[in-house]
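dumping this here so i dont lose it
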């Protein structure tokens, strides 16, 4: 039927390699999962927000760039320094980093018009840990829009975080909620979670 909507028309891939290789992340993870699933929209995760990454994603319809960055760091064995040191992921959710990344994505979007938003992962945890106020957080979207007034700010919200008090004052800073149900056994409650989310973010 002509009116049918396919996953390829509306779906998004959360894409990028988390831990790979010895010391750094390979760019060869970016965008490939999205294309493998036949999708045209990508949430660019884990990799750097730079022209090299964006060139690799330039054929996609939309790209949203993570700004609360998951960095990697070496973990040395105390008895064997430098010998096969593994890596671990470290989530940098400081306001300075969010603002700097948002501004960087804003600048990149002028050369790559398929960039439509910045994406803030695991936001509530960082709001609590870093004691971020709504007034401070408004600077994140401002930093992106300084270079491109059309950019939106996406934020991750987990089903377990759907208490109105958690988000008091932050609603006006967020353009798109990326609602996650972490525990697959709870997916049967998805309608309930969507309703709660809409009540908090009308």
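and the seq i came up w/
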């Amino acid at each position: 039927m002509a009116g049918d909507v396919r996953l390829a028309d509306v779906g998004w891939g959360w894409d990028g390699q988390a831990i790979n290789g010895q010391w750094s992340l390979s760019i060869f993870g970016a965008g490939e999962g999205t294309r493998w699933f036949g999708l045209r929209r990508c949430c660019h995760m884990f990799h750097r927000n730079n022209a090299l990454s964006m060139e690799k994603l330039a054929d996609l319809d939309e790209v949203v760039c993570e700004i609360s960055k998951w960095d990697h760091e070496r973990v040395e064995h105390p008895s064997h320094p430098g010998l096969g040191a593994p890596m671990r992921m470290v989530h940098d959710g400081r306001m300075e980093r969010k603002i700097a990344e948002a501004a960087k994505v804003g600048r990149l979007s002028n050369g790559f018009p398929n960039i439509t938003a910045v994406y803030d992962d695991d936001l509530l945890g960082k709001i609590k840990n870093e004691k971020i106020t709504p007034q401070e957080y408004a600077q994140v979207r401002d930093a992106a829009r300084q270079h491109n007034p059309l950019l939106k700010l996406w934020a991750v919200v987990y089903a377990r975080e759907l208490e109105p008090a958690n988000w008091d004052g932050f609603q006006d800073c967020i353009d798109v909620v990326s609602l996650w149900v972490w525990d697959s056994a709870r997916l049967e409650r998805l309608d309930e979670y969507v309703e709660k989310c809409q009540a908090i973010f009308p």
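Residues 95-111 form the longest helix (17 residues).
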